[in-house]
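User: For documentation purposes, I need each entry recorded in a consistent format: the amino acid sequence on its own, followed directly by the corresponding structure tokens. There are two entries in this batch. Please keep commentary to a minimum and don't merge the entries.

Assistant: Recorded as requested. Entry 1:
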Amino acid sequence: MSTTVAAAVAALDERYPPVWAEEWDRVGLVVGDPVWPVARILCVVDCVPETVAEAIAADADLIVAHHPLLMRGVSSVAATSYKGRIVQNLIKNDVALFTAHTNADVANPGVSDALAARLGLVDLRPLEPAGDDPGRGVGRIGRLPVPRPLSALTAQAASVLPRTAWGVRAAGDPDRVITTVAVCGGAGDSFLATAAAAGVDAYLTADLRHHPVSEAVAGGGPALLDAAHWATERPWLDDLAAYLRARLEVDVVVSDLDTDPWTLHAASPLFTPSKESLP
């Protein structure tokens, strides 16, 4: 059972055309020779030393990553830098690297479809449709089969998403009944206004910031759920792996290695006001 890097790239480009990527993004083949044989592929969110070591230990010939390794121009890939050491390690072990990022975000099915599926959302449509195809675009809006309060939806999200130290936090009335939900895998605070304009009851994404959240909730927008960036994109790897298995004669492994940078979480103790703070 073996194919080539070129065949894998062709299959990936068909599913996630590079022209769908944002202008600033860097997708496609990063390391490797198109003629290299591929018998096993490892699917990851991040190409970091830990996932490279995982690929080498698993005898993988190709890593398919969501996040680009080399986003900006470089003048050196010497082993004197963090990313240079990754590139050198990949080359020394004949492991190719391919990235599908914003082109996978807007695909249908894509990153946010997999996230919506974890919540059981139905009747999906894009949060921000692509101009040339209303069936794809950034994020997804869907309906919960059974409405539930925000507190229950938050607990559900924490239970169905990959476990991280970050967990899931929410902003809004815990008793607010949620029927329609928008989701966006990865950092999605730039679509807060889009979610509000869509009239959804809740919006789940990652990397939400204090002031935009405060202003969005105060402005009567949807309840907000903030999960770990890695956790919102990891579900897509299962869909990616299923596609690759169906298209190529290869073994495909999905990494469950948590590459979220936040590694510890301590819940605040119950607040007891000091005598000095009492009126």
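Entry 2:
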Amino acid sequence: MTIAVRTSQAHLLPAVAVALCGAMWGVFWVPLHWFGSAGVGGAWVSLLFNAMAVASALPFLLRRSAWEGFADQAVNGLLLGTAFSLYTVSLVLTDVVHAILLFYLTPVWSTLAGRLFLGERLSASRLLAMALGFAGLAAVLGVKEGIPLPRNWGDGLALISGMLWAAGTLRSFHRPTRRVALPVFTFSFGGLLSSAVILAAAAVLGLPLAAPGQLWAMLPWIMLLGLIIFVPPNFLVLWAAQRIDSARVGILLMTEVLFGTLSAAFLSGQPFTLAEGIGTALIVSAGLIEVLRR
């Protein structure tokens, strides 16, 4: 009895942590829009946020023992960091509806990969949670033609980013490390490298994504908000990804859509429709199934 309770709690805390991270990422658009109104391109914000996350992990990596398992974590970090950067770019290159739906196919890729390559069991509760989550996404985002297929480069990047995220979280779960600082460092460094490549490419092509705008004036705010809404979720979601399976992480992160929709409705004056209310309830139900499932 005691062992069962401890096991349940061991899965409950990471699940709640991932759901909270999704909620924080759901309001990520607010500061990005603010920085954008000052002419600061999203590639600069991504670069600086990842640089701060790298710096935040370094004090925990002063001992040589903290670098144990670096090779595995470097691969995980490159996958996850690149996925996050590509997803950010896809939001600029295509409409948000297609980008979000294509990225949040991650539970499908994770479940399929876990079943085909690792022999993971596919439970009825997992299938139900996935069905509710995707139904909620479709309702909230107003998709009438089903899951969209890639139509442009932005759609393609969103789809690829979801696959990379699924691969990264799957490896994180099956190749964990004792401390979270190393996964945070490798994830952030992977994001830093990919953001630098994106920034350089955007600058060569003359895209607004690389526009500096009022970068120096906004730098203190970028650093402050990065320490609030970017660095803490990195620690939480990477700590949790080593304790709960990849598909579950993807389903729980659907709270990003929930809080993104709610924040847009209340902060930007967009109407909150009945369909969005139904979708919200479905997403919450999917999250509860995953949080409470042993």
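Summary note for entry 2:
Confidence is low (pLDDT under 50) at residues 1-7.
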